[in-house]
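Ticket opened by: R.M.
Priority: normal
Category: complex prediction / small molecule

The reporter submitted a protein together with guanosine-5'-triphosphate and asked that the result be attached to this ticket for the collaborator who will pick it up next week. Submitted input follows.
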Amino acid sequence: MFLDKVTIWCKAGNGGDGSVSFFRDKNNPNGGPDGGDGGRGGDIIFVANPSLTNLTDFRYTKHFRAENGANGGKRFSTGKSGKDLIIQVPQGTVIRNAENNKILCDLYDKGESVTLLRGGKGGVGNTKYATPTRQAPRFSEMGVKTKEYQLLLELKTIADVGLVGFPNVGKSSLLASVSNARPKIANYHFTTLAPNIGVVKAYGSSFVMADIPGLIEGASEGEGLGLDFLRHIERTRLLIHVVDIAGSEGRDPYDDYVKINQELSKYNDVSKIPQIVALNKCDLLQDKNAIDDFVKKAGNIEYYVISAVAHIGLNELLEGIIKKLQTLPVREKLAVEQEVLDKKVKKTYTIEKKNAHYFDVEGDLIDEIAFGVVLEDMSSFAYFQKRMRDEGIIDALKAKGMQEGDTVKVTNIEFIYTE
Ligand SMILES: Nc1nc2c(ncn2[C@@H]2O[C@H](COP(=O)(O)OP(=O)(O)OP(=O)(O)O)[C@@H](O)[C@H]2O)c(=O)[nH]1
Ligand SMILES: [Mg+2]
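Result attached by the on-call engineer:
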Protein backbone atom coordinates (compact mmCIF):
# COMPACT_ATOMS: atom_id res chain seq x y z
CA MET A 1 0.00 0.00 0.00
CA PHE A 2 1.21 3.45 -0.94
CA LEU A 3 1.19 5.93 1.94
CA ASP A 4 1.91 9.63 1.50
CA LYS A 5 0.23 11.16 4.55
CA VAL A 6 0.62 9.97 8.14
CA THR A 7 0.31 11.15 11.71
CA ILE A 8 3.06 10.21 14.13
CA TRP A 9 3.94 10.96 17.75
CA CYS A 10 7.41 12.09 18.71
CA LYS A 11 9.09 12.90 21.97
CA ALA A 12 12.66 14.01 22.55
CA GLY A 13 14.47 12.55 25.57
CA ASN A 14 14.04 14.01 29.05
CA GLY A 15 17.02 15.57 30.70
CA GLY A 16 18.39 13.49 33.57
CA ASP A 17 18.07 14.87 37.11
CA GLY A 18 21.02 16.29 38.96
CA SER A 19 22.15 14.13 41.87
CA VAL A 20 22.27 14.92 45.58
CA SER A 21 25.21 13.10 47.05
CA PHE A 22 27.96 13.64 49.62
CA PHE A 23 31.43 12.27 49.54
CA ARG A 24 32.30 10.14 52.55
CA ASP A 25 35.11 7.76 53.47
CA LYS A 26 36.92 6.83 56.62
CA ASN A 27 39.28 9.80 56.39
CA ASN A 28 36.52 12.14 55.36
CA PRO A 29 33.36 11.32 57.28
CA ASN A 30 31.83 14.67 56.33
CA GLY A 31 33.13 15.27 52.83
CA GLY A 32 31.60 17.84 50.52
CA PRO A 33 28.79 17.43 48.00
CA ASP A 34 29.69 15.27 45.01
CA GLY A 35 26.38 14.93 43.10
CA GLY A 36 26.88 15.06 39.32
CA ASP A 37 24.71 16.69 36.66
CA GLY A 38 22.04 14.84 34.72
CA GLY A 39 22.68 14.00 31.06
CA ARG A 40 20.95 15.73 28.16
CA GLY A 41 18.02 13.98 26.49
CA GLY A 42 18.36 12.84 22.86
CA ASP A 43 17.03 14.99 19.98
CA ILE A 44 14.64 13.91 17.26
CA ILE A 45 16.15 14.56 13.85
CA PHE A 46 14.45 14.13 10.47
CA VAL A 47 16.56 13.39 7.38
CA ALA A 48 15.47 13.62 3.72
CA ASN A 49 16.41 10.35 2.09
CA PRO A 50 16.06 10.52 -1.72
CA SER A 51 15.88 6.75 -2.04
CA LEU A 52 12.56 6.61 -0.20
CA THR A 53 9.48 7.26 -2.30
CA ASN A 54 6.65 7.06 0.21
CA LEU A 55 5.78 7.06 3.90
CA THR A 56 4.86 3.37 4.13
CA ASP A 57 7.54 2.82 6.80
CA PHE A 58 5.23 4.74 9.15
CA ARG A 59 2.25 2.52 8.61
CA TYR A 60 2.75 0.52 11.78
CA THR A 61 5.47 2.45 13.57
CA LYS A 62 3.94 5.70 14.71
CA HIS A 63 5.56 6.42 18.07
CA PHE A 64 9.10 7.71 18.30
CA ARG A 65 11.01 8.51 21.45
CA ALA A 66 14.59 9.62 21.74
CA GLU A 67 16.52 8.27 24.70
CA ASN A 68 16.33 10.06 28.05
CA GLY A 69 19.44 11.46 29.66
CA ALA A 70 20.59 9.45 32.68
CA ASN A 71 20.51 10.97 36.15
CA GLY A 72 23.70 12.32 37.63
CA GLY A 73 25.55 10.09 40.07
CA LYS A 74 27.84 10.32 43.03
CA ARG A 75 31.52 11.18 42.80
CA PHE A 76 30.77 14.01 40.35
CA SER A 77 29.67 11.62 37.65
CA THR A 78 27.56 13.23 34.92
CA GLY A 79 24.65 11.18 33.63
CA LYS A 80 25.02 9.75 30.13
CA SER A 81 23.36 11.81 27.38
CA GLY A 82 20.41 10.19 25.62
CA LYS A 83 21.00 9.04 22.03
CA ASP A 84 19.48 11.16 19.26
CA LEU A 85 16.81 9.48 17.19
CA ILE A 86 17.16 9.89 13.43
CA ILE A 87 14.00 9.42 11.37
CA GLN A 88 14.42 8.93 7.61
CA VAL A 89 11.71 10.37 5.38
CA PRO A 90 11.41 10.76 1.61
CA GLN A 91 12.73 13.95 0.07
CA GLY A 92 9.82 16.39 -0.22
CA THR A 93 8.22 15.50 3.11
CA VAL A 94 6.44 18.43 4.72
CA ILE A 95 6.05 18.18 8.50
CA ARG A 96 3.31 20.03 10.36
CA ASN A 97 2.41 20.45 14.00
CA ALA A 98 -0.91 18.60 14.33
CA GLU A 99 -2.05 21.00 17.05
CA ASN A 100 -2.29 24.00 14.73
CA ASN A 101 -1.43 22.59 11.27
CA LYS A 102 1.53 24.96 10.97
CA ILE A 103 4.49 23.91 8.81
CA LEU A 104 7.52 23.01 10.91
CA CYS A 105 9.81 22.04 8.06
CA ASP A 106 9.96 21.01 4.45
CA LEU A 107 12.67 18.42 3.80
CA TYR A 108 13.21 19.61 0.28
CA ASP A 109 16.90 19.05 -0.36
CA LYS A 110 18.64 15.70 -0.71
CA GLY A 111 20.09 14.62 2.62
CA GLU A 112 18.78 17.70 4.40
CA SER A 113 18.38 17.20 8.12
CA VAL A 114 16.32 19.11 10.65
CA THR A 115 16.40 18.77 14.42
CA LEU A 116 12.74 19.17 15.15
CA LEU A 117 12.63 18.27 18.82
CA ARG A 118 15.42 19.02 21.22
CA GLY A 119 16.21 16.82 24.17
CA GLY A 120 15.76 18.27 27.67
CA LYS A 121 18.72 19.82 29.43
CA GLY A 122 20.14 17.79 32.27
CA GLY A 123 19.69 19.15 35.80
CA VAL A 124 22.59 20.43 37.84
CA GLY A 125 23.89 18.24 40.68
CA ASN A 126 24.17 19.46 44.26
CA THR A 127 27.92 20.02 43.82
CA LYS A 128 27.19 23.16 41.84
CA TYR A 129 25.00 24.61 44.57
CA ALA A 130 27.78 24.58 47.17
CA THR A 131 28.83 28.04 48.32
CA PRO A 132 31.01 29.15 51.25
CA THR A 133 27.90 29.59 53.35
CA ARG A 134 26.04 26.61 51.97
CA GLN A 135 28.49 23.76 52.19
CA ALA A 136 26.07 20.89 52.15
CA PRO A 137 23.28 21.60 49.66
CA ARG A 138 20.67 18.91 49.92
CA PHE A 139 19.05 19.74 46.67
CA SER A 140 19.74 19.47 42.99
CA GLU A 141 18.03 20.56 39.80
CA MET A 142 15.56 18.46 37.91
CA GLY A 143 16.27 17.68 34.25
CA VAL A 144 13.95 19.34 31.74
CA LYS A 145 11.08 17.01 30.87
CA THR A 146 10.03 17.08 27.23
CA LYS A 147 6.59 17.05 25.72
CA GLU A 148 5.24 14.60 23.18
CA TYR A 149 4.14 16.17 19.90
CA GLN A 150 1.76 14.92 17.29
CA LEU A 151 3.20 15.54 13.83
CA LEU A 152 1.63 15.32 10.39
CA LEU A 153 3.91 14.05 7.65
CA GLU A 154 2.86 14.71 4.10
CA LEU A 155 4.85 13.83 1.03
CA LYS A 156 4.76 16.41 -1.73
CA THR A 157 6.97 14.84 -4.34
CA ILE A 158 9.67 16.98 -5.82
CA ALA A 159 9.81 16.78 -9.62
CA ASP A 160 10.30 19.30 -12.41
CA VAL A 161 7.66 17.88 -14.68
CA GLY A 162 4.35 16.16 -13.91
CA LEU A 163 2.29 13.98 -16.25
CA VAL A 164 -1.48 14.38 -16.13
CA GLY A 165 -4.34 13.01 -18.17
CA PHE A 166 -7.22 10.55 -18.33
CA PRO A 167 -6.55 6.94 -17.36
CA ASN A 168 -4.98 4.76 -20.05
CA VAL A 169 -3.86 7.64 -22.30
CA GLY A 170 -0.21 6.56 -22.06
CA LYS A 171 1.34 8.59 -19.23
CA SER A 172 3.34 5.70 -17.82
CA SER A 173 4.32 4.62 -21.34
CA LEU A 174 5.74 8.08 -21.94
CA LEU A 175 7.64 8.06 -18.63
CA ALA A 176 9.05 4.62 -19.46
CA SER A 177 10.12 5.73 -22.95
CA VAL A 178 12.02 8.82 -21.86
CA SER A 179 13.32 8.08 -18.35
CA ASN A 180 14.99 5.43 -16.26
CA ALA A 181 11.70 4.57 -14.54
CA ARG A 182 10.00 1.26 -15.28
CA PRO A 183 6.36 1.80 -14.31
CA LYS A 184 3.68 -0.79 -14.86
CA ILE A 185 1.90 -0.33 -18.18
CA ALA A 186 -1.30 -2.10 -19.18
CA ASN A 187 -4.37 -1.60 -21.26
CA TYR A 188 -6.86 -0.79 -18.52
CA HIS A 189 -7.76 2.19 -16.35
CA PHE A 190 -5.83 2.94 -13.16
CA THR A 191 -2.87 0.75 -13.89
CA THR A 192 -0.82 3.31 -12.01
CA LEU A 193 -1.90 3.39 -8.37
CA ALA A 194 0.91 5.44 -6.89
CA PRO A 195 3.21 8.12 -8.28
CA ASN A 196 6.26 7.01 -10.26
CA ILE A 197 9.34 9.14 -10.61
CA GLY A 198 11.98 8.98 -13.31
CA VAL A 199 15.06 10.94 -14.27
CA VAL A 200 15.12 12.12 -17.89
CA LYS A 201 18.48 12.81 -19.49
CA ALA A 202 18.47 14.56 -22.86
CA TYR A 203 20.34 17.26 -24.72
CA GLY A 204 22.97 17.56 -22.02
CA SER A 205 20.47 18.34 -19.31
CA SER A 206 18.44 16.30 -16.90
CA PHE A 207 15.17 16.71 -15.05
CA VAL A 208 12.81 14.69 -12.88
CA MET A 209 9.46 13.55 -14.24
CA ALA A 210 6.58 12.28 -12.12
CA ASP A 211 3.69 10.15 -13.34
CA ILE A 212 0.56 10.10 -11.21
CA PRO A 213 -2.54 7.91 -11.43
CA GLY A 214 -5.00 8.97 -14.13
CA LEU A 215 -7.47 11.70 -13.31
CA ILE A 216 -11.12 11.45 -14.05
CA GLU A 217 -13.97 13.87 -13.81
CA GLY A 218 -14.78 14.53 -10.17
CA ALA A 219 -11.36 13.44 -8.99
CA SER A 220 -10.88 16.61 -7.00
CA GLU A 221 -14.12 15.86 -5.17
CA GLY A 222 -12.81 12.50 -4.14
CA GLU A 223 -14.05 10.31 -6.97
CA GLY A 224 -11.62 7.83 -8.45
CA LEU A 225 -8.02 7.97 -7.36
CA GLY A 226 -7.08 11.42 -8.52
CA LEU A 227 -7.61 13.85 -5.69
CA ASP A 228 -4.95 12.83 -3.24
CA PHE A 229 -2.31 12.34 -5.86
CA LEU A 230 -2.47 15.90 -7.11
CA ARG A 231 -0.28 16.87 -4.18
CA HIS A 232 2.55 15.07 -5.95
CA ILE A 233 2.44 17.43 -8.91
CA GLU A 234 1.72 20.53 -6.87
CA ARG A 235 5.42 21.31 -6.76
CA THR A 236 6.25 20.65 -10.40
CA ARG A 237 7.24 23.51 -12.66
CA LEU A 238 5.63 22.16 -15.79
CA LEU A 239 2.81 19.75 -16.58
CA ILE A 240 2.69 17.47 -19.61
CA HIS A 241 -0.97 17.03 -20.37
CA VAL A 242 -1.19 13.67 -22.15
CA VAL A 243 -4.18 13.27 -24.47
CA ASP A 244 -5.22 10.16 -26.44
CA ILE A 245 -5.50 11.99 -29.77
CA ALA A 246 -6.63 8.81 -31.51
CA GLY A 247 -9.66 8.66 -29.23
CA SER A 248 -8.93 4.95 -28.95
CA GLU A 249 -11.53 4.46 -26.23
CA GLY A 250 -14.25 6.33 -28.08
CA ARG A 251 -14.02 9.62 -26.17
CA ASP A 252 -13.44 12.97 -27.82
CA PRO A 253 -9.80 14.10 -27.17
CA TYR A 254 -10.74 17.75 -26.71
CA ASP A 255 -13.45 16.81 -24.21
CA ASP A 256 -10.86 14.88 -22.21
CA TYR A 257 -8.53 17.85 -22.26
CA VAL A 258 -11.22 20.23 -20.97
CA LYS A 259 -12.32 17.83 -18.24
CA ILE A 260 -8.81 17.30 -16.92
CA ASN A 261 -8.20 21.05 -16.83
CA GLN A 262 -11.44 21.46 -14.90
CA GLU A 263 -10.21 18.93 -12.39
CA LEU A 264 -6.85 20.66 -12.02
CA SER A 265 -8.53 23.99 -11.41
CA LYS A 266 -10.17 22.58 -8.29
CA TYR A 267 -6.95 21.66 -6.56
CA ASN A 268 -4.84 24.43 -5.05
CA ASP A 269 -2.75 26.22 -7.65
CA VAL A 270 -2.16 23.27 -9.93
CA SER A 271 -4.00 24.89 -12.83
CA LYS A 272 -1.55 27.79 -12.75
CA ILE A 273 1.34 25.46 -13.61
CA PRO A 274 2.27 25.92 -17.30
CA GLN A 275 1.34 23.03 -19.61
CA ILE A 276 2.66 21.38 -22.70
CA VAL A 277 0.16 19.13 -24.45
CA ALA A 278 1.35 15.72 -25.68
CA LEU A 279 -1.05 14.36 -28.30
CA ASN A 280 -0.26 10.68 -27.80
CA LYS A 281 -1.10 7.46 -29.65
CA CYS A 282 -0.61 9.22 -33.00
CA ASP A 283 0.33 5.83 -34.45
CA LEU A 284 -3.32 4.81 -34.06
CA LEU A 285 -4.66 7.97 -35.64
CA GLN A 286 -7.16 7.27 -38.45
CA ASP A 287 -8.40 10.77 -39.11
CA LYS A 288 -5.50 13.17 -39.58
CA ASN A 289 -7.89 16.12 -39.13
CA ALA A 290 -8.18 15.18 -35.46
CA ILE A 291 -4.98 17.09 -34.66
CA ASP A 292 -6.09 20.26 -36.44
CA ASP A 293 -9.52 20.04 -34.85
CA PHE A 294 -8.02 19.69 -31.40
CA VAL A 295 -5.56 22.54 -31.81
CA LYS A 296 -8.20 24.86 -33.24
CA LYS A 297 -10.46 24.25 -30.25
CA ALA A 298 -7.69 24.41 -27.64
CA GLY A 299 -6.42 27.72 -28.96
CA ASN A 300 -3.09 29.01 -27.79
CA ILE A 301 -1.26 25.87 -26.63
CA GLU A 302 2.20 24.42 -26.98
CA TYR A 303 1.79 20.85 -28.25
CA TYR A 304 3.67 17.90 -29.66
CA VAL A 305 2.28 14.97 -31.60
CA ILE A 306 3.82 11.79 -30.23
CA SER A 307 3.58 8.06 -29.83
CA ALA A 308 5.04 6.81 -26.58
CA VAL A 309 4.98 3.23 -27.83
CA ALA A 310 6.16 3.76 -31.42
CA HIS A 311 8.69 6.39 -30.27
CA ILE A 312 7.44 9.13 -32.54
CA GLY A 313 8.05 12.79 -31.71
CA LEU A 314 9.70 12.09 -28.36
CA ASN A 315 12.91 14.01 -29.04
CA GLU A 316 10.96 17.08 -30.12
CA LEU A 317 8.86 16.84 -26.97
CA LEU A 318 11.94 16.55 -24.74
CA GLU A 319 13.57 19.49 -26.46
CA GLY A 320 10.41 21.52 -25.91
CA ILE A 321 10.32 20.54 -22.22
CA ILE A 322 13.95 21.48 -21.63
CA LYS A 323 13.53 24.85 -23.35
CA LYS A 324 10.42 25.58 -21.37
CA LEU A 325 12.01 24.56 -18.06
CA GLN A 326 14.82 27.02 -18.67
CA THR A 327 12.30 29.84 -18.66
CA LEU A 328 10.53 28.72 -15.49
CA PRO A 329 11.61 29.72 -11.99
CA VAL A 330 13.09 27.11 -9.70
CA ARG A 331 10.67 25.97 -7.03
CA GLU A 332 11.47 26.82 -3.47
CA LYS A 333 10.76 24.95 -0.32
CA LEU A 334 7.68 25.83 1.69
CA ALA A 335 8.12 28.52 4.31
CA VAL A 336 8.29 27.41 7.90
CA GLU A 337 5.26 28.70 9.81
CA GLN A 338 6.22 27.70 13.33
CA GLU A 339 9.83 28.30 14.23
CA VAL A 340 10.21 26.57 17.54
CA LEU A 341 8.32 23.54 18.63
CA ASP A 342 9.63 22.89 22.10
CA LYS A 343 9.41 26.47 23.24
CA LYS A 344 9.45 26.38 27.01
CA VAL A 345 5.96 26.47 28.36
CA LYS A 346 5.83 29.04 31.10
CA LYS A 347 5.33 27.28 34.38
CA THR A 348 2.70 28.73 36.65
CA TYR A 349 1.20 28.50 40.12
CA THR A 350 -1.96 29.41 41.95
CA ILE A 351 -2.51 30.81 45.42
CA GLU A 352 -5.57 29.84 47.36
CA LYS A 353 -6.43 31.80 50.47
CA LYS A 354 -7.99 29.11 52.66
CA ASN A 355 -8.72 31.53 55.50
CA ALA A 356 -7.38 34.88 56.72
CA HIS A 357 -4.04 33.39 57.79
CA TYR A 358 -3.63 30.27 55.69
CA PHE A 359 -2.44 30.19 52.08
CA ASP A 360 -2.10 27.21 49.79
CA VAL A 361 0.30 27.53 46.84
CA GLU A 362 0.20 24.95 44.02
CA GLY A 363 1.32 24.50 40.43
CA ASP A 364 4.10 23.12 38.26
CA LEU A 365 6.39 26.04 39.04
CA ILE A 366 6.10 25.19 42.73
CA ASP A 367 6.76 21.51 42.04
CA GLU A 368 9.89 22.49 40.16
CA ILE A 369 11.16 24.78 42.89
CA ALA A 370 10.41 22.28 45.61
CA PHE A 371 11.87 19.31 43.75
CA GLY A 372 14.90 17.89 45.46
CA VAL A 373 14.72 20.46 48.22
CA VAL A 374 14.80 19.06 51.70
CA LEU A 375 12.75 21.62 53.53
CA GLU A 376 14.01 20.59 56.95
CA ASP A 377 17.53 21.37 55.87
CA MET A 378 18.44 25.00 56.59
CA SER A 379 20.49 25.72 53.48
CA SER A 380 18.00 23.95 51.23
CA PHE A 381 15.19 25.89 52.75
CA ALA A 382 17.07 29.17 52.29
CA TYR A 383 17.55 28.33 48.61
CA PHE A 384 13.89 27.44 48.30
CA GLN A 385 12.85 30.76 49.86
CA LYS A 386 15.14 32.67 47.54
CA ARG A 387 13.55 31.02 44.48
CA MET A 388 10.09 31.80 45.89
CA ARG A 389 11.11 35.43 46.23
CA ASP A 390 12.86 35.59 42.81
CA GLU A 391 9.80 34.17 41.05
CA GLY A 392 7.63 36.83 42.69
CA ILE A 393 5.61 34.30 44.68
CA ILE A 394 6.25 35.98 48.01
CA ASP A 395 5.07 39.32 46.57
CA ALA A 396 2.00 37.63 45.14
CA LEU A 397 1.25 36.13 48.56
CA LYS A 398 1.62 39.54 50.18
CA ALA A 399 -0.70 41.02 47.60
CA LYS A 400 -3.27 38.46 48.71
CA GLY A 401 -2.89 39.68 52.29
CA MET A 402 -0.21 37.41 53.72
CA GLN A 403 1.35 38.84 56.87
CA GLU A 404 4.11 37.82 59.19
CA GLY A 405 3.10 34.77 61.17
CA ASP A 406 0.67 33.41 58.56
CA THR A 407 0.90 29.80 57.44
CA VAL A 408 1.82 28.94 53.85
CA LYS A 409 1.39 25.44 52.50
CA VAL A 410 3.65 24.52 49.62
CA THR A 411 3.29 21.02 48.15
CA ASN A 412 3.14 18.94 51.34
CA ILE A 413 4.98 21.28 53.68
CA GLU A 414 3.67 24.06 55.84
CA PHE A 415 5.79 26.92 57.06
CA ILE A 416 5.25 30.13 58.97
CA TYR A 417 6.08 33.25 57.05
CA THR A 418 8.63 35.57 58.69
CA GLU A 419 10.00 38.76 57.13
N1 LIG B 1 -0.70 2.31 -29.88
C1 LIG B 1 -0.30 2.97 -28.81
N2 LIG B 1 -0.57 2.52 -27.60
C2 LIG B 1 -0.13 3.23 -26.53
C3 LIG B 1 0.61 4.41 -26.67
N3 LIG B 1 0.90 4.86 -25.44
C4 LIG B 1 0.36 3.98 -24.56
N4 LIG B 1 -0.27 2.99 -25.23
C5 LIG B 1 -0.99 1.86 -24.63
O1 LIG B 1 -2.05 2.35 -23.85
C6 LIG B 1 -2.24 1.52 -22.70
C7 LIG B 1 -2.18 2.37 -21.48
O2 LIG B 1 -0.89 2.86 -21.31
P1 LIG B 1 -0.34 3.38 -19.91
O3 LIG B 1 1.00 3.98 -20.17
O4 LIG B 1 -0.44 2.32 -18.90
O5 LIG B 1 -1.39 4.52 -19.65
P2 LIG B 1 -1.56 5.44 -18.36
O6 LIG B 1 -2.00 6.76 -18.83
O7 LIG B 1 -0.34 5.38 -17.54
O8 LIG B 1 -2.77 4.70 -17.65
P3 LIG B 1 -3.19 4.67 -16.09
O9 LIG B 1 -1.96 4.41 -15.29
O10 LIG B 1 -4.16 3.57 -16.01
O11 LIG B 1 -3.80 5.99 -15.83
C8 LIG B 1 -1.18 0.45 -22.77
O12 LIG B 1 -1.72 -0.71 -23.34
C9 LIG B 1 -0.13 1.06 -23.69
O13 LIG B 1 0.61 0.08 -24.39
C10 LIG B 1 0.90 4.86 -27.98
O14 LIG B 1 1.52 5.88 -28.23
N5 LIG B 1 0.41 4.11 -29.01
MG1 LIG C 1 -0.04 4.73 -15.68
